[in-house]
Amino acid sequence: MRLEPGMIVAKPVTGGIGQQITIHLPAGALITASTIAQLVNKGVECVAVERAQTINGEAGARLVSQYESRLDEIFGLDPDENCRSLWEALRKDIP
Amino acid sequence: MIRLTPENLDTEVARLACRLPPFPSVVMELLELTGDEEVSINIMVRLARNDPVILSGILATANRLRRIHAQPDIHDPFVAASLIGTNQLRRIVITAAMNKFAPEENGAEFLHNHTRAVAIVAHELAMLCDVSPDKAYVAAMLHDVGQLCFHIMDAIAFQDIYLQSATDGKLIEREAAYFGFDHAVIGSKLAEIWQLPADFVCAIRWHHADDTVVCRLQALINVAESLTRALDIPPSPKNRLTKLNAKAVAELGIDWNSPEMLDCFGRCRARFHQALG
Predict the structure, then answer these.
(1) pTM of the model
(2) Is this prediction's ipTM beyond 0.85?
(3) What domains lie within chain B, and their CATH numbers?
(4) Fewest CB atoms within 10 A around its CB: which of A95, B31, B66, B267?
């Protein structure tokens, strides 16, 4: 999805050149044409924006279940100690 | 096909390297220029004038911004470069240069997409782990370069090996059994022939190691490879993660449950799907 004016920043964004941070947008900021130009110029590749709508109810539960089943396939049903921490983090991070 | 042995490895890989595109020296020059913005822009614009892919990437990015402001398109690469900034410029130049190593044979699409996914994940992880993101991106674009040699040596056999390994993940073992060495060894030899820095050679050589850390760049590429499979990008039944290099995770100071890492997962997925267009 391409960033468009009118979208709302969902998570804080920082960007800059090298180690120098020259742009910071807090969560809740409104994206404008000028903001997009600055974000590109500062090398920001990706911005989390608020969703217009979320998938709830049965359809949402089905998507979560599919995601968890796929994780189980990737990691196996009993991931070893080193993999478990990543597996648990991904289970919390439902796309 | 000549099977690779310890005795013929150097000469055979040197011979195979002659059939690959020459390594773009501009990539290493750009990595060394980090921080010198004015020089970087001048060099990249000079390059862009001679490379239609780079030129169109720079103009397209700049004109996309101008269209948001309802401004007319521009055609001067220097003006465009100034508008989009050195970070984006460097990314466009490096991506265009490294894409020359993307295999084009039938059935190589997954390999190409896997390489791009690892590059994006490495770039994102590097920003959290105090490793140069551009260096991580280039090393990741090269991490499977050894497989290009297998495409040259025996493309059909390599595709068979690749497909068979989708079910049990024993790619490395099958490569070594058929060709004599696996792609990590061949890739590191190629990197030596191209006279890439030692940390690139190590990163390619040990990107599948379960229990070895040689340098931070190698640790990063190793973890990026694993995380790419865990995130299922690109989606494939071959994506399995049964081992994770705990020493590499510790070396990079990664906490999978930190808020920054949870953001990183989403950014990796979003950037990969955006890159696929």
Answers:
(1) 0.86
(2) no
(3) 9-22+104-276 (1.10.3210.10), 33-101 (no CATH)
(4) A95
Please name the member of B65, B229, B244 whose beta carbon is closest to the beta carbon of A82: B244
A41 touches B: beta carbon within 8 Å: yes
Residues in A closer than 8 angstroms to B87, CB to CB, are 15, 17, 41-43
pLDDT digits (tens, 9 = 90+) for B243-268: 899 999 999 999 999 999 998 999 99
Q: Which two tokens stand for residue A36?
A: 């997009």
What string of H, E and C letters represents the secondary structure of B13-74?
A: HHHHHCCCCCCCHHHHHHHHCCCCHHHHHHHHHHHHHHCHHHHHHHHHHHHHHHHHCCCCCC
Structure tokens at A72: 């189980």
Q: Which of B249, B242, B247, B248 is nearest to B169 (CA)?
A: B242
Q: Provide the token pair at B255.
A: 């906490």
Which regions of chain B are under pLDDT 70? 33-38, 102-108, 277
- Give the separation between CA A50 and CA A46, rounded to whole angstroms: 13
**ω before B234 within 30° of 0 (cis)?**
yes
Q: Which of B225, B229, B194 is nearest to B207 (CA)?
A: B225
**Per-residue model confidence as pLDDT tens digits over A67-86:** 999 999 999 888 888 899 99
